[in-house]
Amino acid sequence: MGSFEIKTPEDIKKMQEGGKILRAVKNAVAKKVKTGVSAKDLDEFAEQMILDLGGKSSFKTVPNYRWTTCVNVNAGIVHGIPTKDLVFKKGDVVSIDLGVLYQGFHTDTSITVAIDPSAQVSKMLKVGQNALDLAIVEAKPGKRIYDISEAIEKKVKAGGFNPVRALVGHGVGRELHEEPQIPCFVSGTRNESPKIPVGAVIAIEVMYTQGKPDLVLEDDGWTISTQDGKISALFEETVAVTSHGPIVLT
């Protein structure tokens, strides 16, 4: 699982400022998901807004990744390249993942939105958001990573969906991906799981699907999709752990 990179109150303050930028960008980008809009349109808008607000793209610091966002549609769950050929249509379920680098610290967030969703898709997205909210509550000193994973898995499965097992949330800070790993599912025993300390900052990710959790890497070398082609979704926030409990930074 790995150990935590502890952040000082000053570090967390910087991450709060970066997270504020990221939250504004995420909300603005989500509103732009409409029929006829392309993933490239979203990516260019997000990059410009991040720069205008004084931040930099976190994802462009990833080796060989040249974009500000990852945009996935329907069966795509993570790392989708935001191309001009990916044009949204009615019924699409669109996941947007983005990060901001600000004053030396990264923040990371994701949201899934649907264009004219069915009742089943609306339920699915509500379940994912609720699972994330419940997981954030568990991000307290003395709790364990296991408690976060359990909160996600219970809510997702109770809704009739499956958390993916090949992808995980993570620590975040001076690096975009830090230890520890934070699964969407229970792994091992609670007592083996790391205790969450004050000063931890983690990206809690809820990644789940309507079908089986098995995933496949697409031919572009980046996009990861469900193997059975069923719809997937993604919700993520960066959360700081303080003596008073969790603070959502994004």
From TrEMBL:
Similarity comment: family membership: Belongs to the peptidase M24A family.
- What are the EC numbers? 3.4.11.18
Keyword Plastid listed? The answer is no
Q: Which GO cellular component terms, listed alphabetically, does the Swiss-Prot or TrEMBL entry include?
A: cytosol
Classification from the root reads:
Bacteria, Candidatus Woeseibacteriota
The residues covered by the Peptidase M24 domain are: 14-242
Q: Pfam families this protein is in?
A: Peptidase_M24
Q: PANTHER family per the record?
A: METHIONINE AMINOPEPTIDASE
Keywords of this entry: Aminopeptidase, Hydrolase, Metal-binding, Protease
Is the keyword Protease in the record? yes
- Protein known as: Methionine aminopeptidase
What chemistry does it catalyse, as a reaction equation?
A: Release of N-terminal amino acids, preferentially methionine, from peptides and arylamides
Q: Which organism is it from?
A: Candidatus Woesebacteria bacterium GWA1_41_8
Q: How cofactor binds (record note)?
A: Binds 2 divalent metal cations per subunit. Has a high-affinity and a low affinity metal-binding site. The true nature of the physiological cofactor is under debate. The enzyme is active with cobalt, zinc, manganese or divalent iron ions.
Primary role: Removes the N-terminal methionine from nascent proteins. The N-terminal methionine is often cleaved when the second residue in the primary sequence is small and uncharged (Met-Ala-, Cys, Gly, Pro, Ser, Thr, or Val). Requires deformylation of the N(alpha)-formylated initiator methionine before it can be hydrolyzed.
Cofactor(s) annotated in UniProt? Co(2+); Zn(2+); Mn(2+); Fe(2+)
The alphabetized list of GO BP terms reads: proteolysis
Q: Which GO terms describe its molecular function?
A: initiator methionyl aminopeptidase activity; metal ion binding; metalloaminopeptidase activity
